[in-house]
Amino acid sequence: MTMMQGFEWYVPADQKHWVRLEKHVGELKKWGIDNIWLPPGCKGSSKDGNGYDIYDLYDLGEFDQKGSVGTKWGTKEELLQLARTAKEKGVGLYWDAVLNHKFAADHREKCQAIEVNPEDRNEHVSQQYEIDAWVGFDFPGRGTKYSELKYHWYHFTGVDFNAANGHKAIYKIVGEQSNGWAQTGDVDGEKGNYDYLMGSDLDYDHPEVEKDVVAWGTWLAKEMPLRGIRFDAIKHYSVEFLEKFVDSLDETYGKGWFFVGEFWKDSLSDMRNYLDRMNHKFSLFDVPLVYNFSEISKSNGADLRKVFDHTLVQTDPVSAVTLVMNHDTQPYQALEAPIEGWFKPLAYALILLRDRGYPCVWYGDLYGIKGEHPFPPSCGGMVPHIMLARKLYCYGKQADYFDFETCIGWVRYGTWDRRYGCAVVLSNAGPGWKRMHVGEMHAGEVWTDVLGWDNKEVVIGSDGFGEFHCGQTSVSIWVNKDAEGREGFSDQFDSDIYEEK
């Protein structure tokens, strides 16, 4: 299986994104995408909001709230049409659930609070006093449809703005009806206690909040045919709550959901501890692998044999979603992790063509990046061809040739029903080559590079070995030139997703 993150941060705020994806979902399936991670589809603080500035969980582009009926991505009906087409084409959809906080309250409420040290949220830096906080959510456009709960100050643990004096700080809300921060251990211990991230931070120790959000999960599953959920910012809210949320979906709709969490921390031990807490019902994005890619791409002659050192895919491959870039790490974003352009084809080969991890291809690498600083599709437009190589040839046992610092390779032997297999060679220095065994059953066959970056032909010897090459700072994917599906590599991927058709 291969998944795709179906957006980048600077997708135009034209409310046409659901329509764009719906038009292209068939082509994405053809090139090897099985599931699409949708952008956050709940109403944000404005019609331009990406959804991480979430206002109303129950508004999927149905109600006139915060300046429009549709979200940045489109209307609920367009979303449902995308879901219908995706189901017809055999492509699953993953929802991006933003459950940590809310933005754009409808009114202010007075409450008691204490300022805390931003670098240690357990340290108080003021006495308790009254603030005027944006914490009143009435949802006037939706009313009580789907949910009757209105949110008030006691449904939140903290805010970062006092409207009474215009002061910005991190405020812990206190009072008889408030529980304060979640316990360290139930949230990440970074900054003392990392419960507070942004906006109006939801309190999952409050029974009304827990009940409403768990109910939203089962409501969402009734509204849309989903295969899974991507959970945003999971290190900032209750693990205990998230266990209940997942259990509720399993009990209501049966098991088989795919759940992946954004636990963005370059600490393998903390990630593994989180997986243990969730009883391994969860996957996590392999953050250490992203940083390894970034470091290797910026180094001169780095040791490629160490690319998987201290990564989740190395230690817990069944729980690892591997990626090269996402909306947070792309250029000009808060968690930017630059990966040099020359290395991206190598990185995609490392996540797509091997036998471990669940790879996630990024929309910005397939279709380019819009906005003030636009970028074209990466890898010279060849990401779809690497995806197709995975779909057609990356099956069966794997033999690694990690025997040289700047040039590594591996072989996939195929299976009885996917018999072709492939050989992959990549170099982060000069031109490279590997003598590798692909199997005596391939003796006499002529193999070529499906990417066309190396124009040589390799004849497999009677002993099943061939000498496979790649260019300088490049990758080559070698397959029998008569293998089933080879004609697909001459097709053109339609990367102009914004073109009106």
UniProtKB/TrEMBL annotation:
Q: Say which domain of life the source belongs to.
A: Eukaryota
A GO molecular-function annotation: hydrolase activity, hydrolyzing O-glycosyl compounds
**Cofactor annotation:** Ca(2+)
Q: Which SUPFAM superfamilies match?
A: (Trans)glycosidases, Glycosyl hydrolase domain
Q: Does the keyword Hydrolase apply?
A: yes
* Record-linked Pfam families: Alpha-amy_C_pro, Alpha-amylase
Q: Which GO terms describe its biological process?
A: carbohydrate metabolic process
Residue ranges of every copy of the Glycosyl hydrolase family 13 catalytic domain listed in the record: 1-403
What CDD domains does this protein map onto?
A: AmyAc_bac_fung_AmyA
Going by the UniProt record, its keywords in alphabetical order are: Carbohydrate metabolism, Glycosidase, Hydrolase, Metal-binding
The record's listing under SMART domains reads:
Aamy
Give the family per the record: Belongs to the glycosyl hydrolase 13 family.
List, alphabetically, the PANTHER family matched. ALPHA-AMYLASE
Name used for this protein in its record: Glucan 1,4-alpha-maltohexaosidase
Q: Which organism is it from?
A: Schizothecium vesticola
